[in-house]
What we know:
The protein is mainly beta and about 70 residues long. It has one helix at about 35-40, and strands at about 5, 10, 45-50, 60-65.
Amino acid sequence: CTVGFANGACLVPVCGDGIxxxxxxxDGTNFGGKTCxxxxxxxxxxxxxxxxxxCRIIDASKCYVGLPWEN
Length: 71
């Protein structure tokens, strides 16, 4: 059991439930507190993250260098 137990049953990670668990790096719009800025080492400070369909990769391809008011 990789996630944990509840009421004696093994919890299985479910991609798409909004909860990061097991092998997941993200789930829906839940990025575990990560932002464009933190994922790119400060290189890109604006834009939007997305989560791949398998919840295994946070996609930062829509991040960009922000204008001063976006930082």
